[in-house]
Here is the input.
Amino acid sequence: DGQDAHRAAVLAASFSPNGELLALGLNSGNLVVRQLDGSYSPDVVLMNDWICALDWHEDGGSICLGTYDGDVRIHTLSTEASPARTWQWHDPTGRRVEATKWLTRDEVVVGLRGSGGESEIILLNQQCEIPLQSTCRVDGMPLTLFELDEQVWCVTSSGAVTCHDRSTLGPLPSVVERAGDAFAACPSPDGNFVHIGGSEGWVRTVELSSGNVVASEQVGQGSVSALAAAGDTVVAGARSGEVVALNTNGTTRSRLVF
Here is the structure.
């Protein structure tokens, strides 16, 4: 049931805008929404495939999900006044959705990975259309997408941290060099840093303005497969199912048990 869903591999994580709730996407197909103290919320959605990407809308009421089989789903959480509902787009070529990012209520940036290894980021509108030229090839599997100063940033599995035009997704200059292999990434709440999870349990914190690695912490033995940040907390989820809370400076705060 939902209480045991965390025992599956954690593939994606996202904090609610107020930092009070944490959404986890699992390879069991479950979306789990919980408080950091481990208390259980009944809002668990069972999908047909792995949930590889999550992003919480700034209104706190909707989550954008990306799945292994190429679905992008907008899931609106249930409230007393409104039942849960879902809007869906499917990639016609069946590429995996590895990253999602809300830009506005009507626009989502999506990172896709094909079976042959080719990767692309695209801009989707609410009509499930891709605006003219709003696509860009990237080197490596897209791990996370975020917006800063009217620009879209992408972190890929090759360790590349790239910057893109907000409207066309065309590439822009970036001072951040490749930071080694990467399995997960997320920006800091202030947008000045990006946290990158790699093999052997390492989480590195990179300053976007300088490209320097300012912190590094080993949180476990397995690869870090999901990261989320809110306030002064970074949560790292591992393929082993372990979830660790870090301070934003990279030091271990606690190991969470859900």
Confidence is low (pLDDT under 50) at residues 1-6. The radius of gyration is 17 Å. Residues 91 and 255 are 37 Å apart (CA to CA). DSSP finds no helices and 24 strands in the chain.
